[in-house]
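Quick one:
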Amino acid sequence: MIIRSKVIKYGDDINTDVIFPGRYLEIVDAQEMAKHAMEDLDEKFHEKVKDAKIIVAGKNFGCGSSREQAATCLKYAGIEAIVAKSFARIFFRNAINQGLVVIECKNVDDIEEGDELEIDTDKGEIKNLSKGATYKIKPLPPFLAEIIKSGGLIPYMKRRVSNEI
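Output:
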């Protein structure tokens, strides 16, 4: 899978409480959730995501509560991939379950907001097209890649049940 887009950049320890604020937890519609993505962290997020579909962040992205709405709101806001030094484990799996590409990369300090990246999940590399740099990444295990390619865990399971996989 190849994802090419500009970058929105954040730092370390981006908490699920700022990804999707707790005061909106009663919302169940994913499109409505998306309207509140990153609201408490970045008031310009929805303007940025029109041109930038990749979030790059530091360590421990998605820490805090285990609310799956954090991954859901990002996906429905238009984010296609998140590249970070590290992820909170529950957020990582919630993102996979939503069909969001999540990639650990130690070189995120070299990437700046607005850079254009090309992520090749099959080759295991990220090209920073703005800087002419290439970063090696560990490809996702095939079963996780298949969940993402299916659009998330529920579509994946529907395909498995109907013997399409």
